[in-house]
């Protein structure tokens, strides 16, 4: 099992609702065992996603799929930068 930790900053505390669709898509992706969404109590614009994957290959497939998605309509991104992704395995 692989745990991916995605850390990012939102443009505003109210932008959290904009990432709900992305989290739903992640949870539905083959090989995803679950996603927890955490918000920093000291900084409500700092979000951490804890994703559980059956394997590194499943996580790789998801990352490739996500990069290939079209940008969609001209809706401003809720992110204030590029997410930092850390992938871990149990030892």
- N-to-C SSE series? EHEEHE
User: What ranges have pLDDT less than 50 throughout 5 or more consecutive residues?
Assistant: none
Strand order of the largest sheet: 2-3-1-4
- Level-1 CATH class name: Alpha Beta
Secondary-structure-derived class: alpha+beta
Looking at the structure, what is the overall shape?
Answer: globular
Summarize the amount of helix as a percent range.
Answer: 10-25%
Cα Rg: 13 Å
What count of helical segments does DSSP give?
A: 2
Overall pLDDT:
89
* End-to-end Cα distance: 10 Å
Tell me what the structure shows.
The chain has 91 residues and is an alpha+beta fold. It has a single domain (2-89), classed as Alpha-Beta Plaits. It is 24% helix and 33% strand. The chain has helices at residues 20-28, 56-68, and strands at residues 2-9, 32-39, 46-53, 84-89. It has a 4-stranded antiparallel sheet with strand order 2-3-1-4. The longest helix has 13 residues, at 56-68. The protein is globular. The N and C termini lie close together (10 Å).
């Amino acid at each position: 099992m692989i745990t991916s930790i995605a850390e990012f900053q939102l443009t505003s505390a109210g932008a959290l609702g904009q990432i709900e669709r992305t989290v739903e898509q992640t949870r539905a992706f083959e090989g995803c065992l679950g996603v927890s969404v955490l918000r920093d109590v000291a900084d409500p614009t700092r979000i951490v996603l804890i994703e559980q994957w059956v394997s590194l290959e499943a996580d790789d497939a998801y990352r490739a799929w996500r990069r290939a998605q079209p940008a969609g309509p001209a809706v401003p991104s809720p992110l204030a930068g590029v997410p930092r992704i850390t992938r871990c395995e149990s030892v």
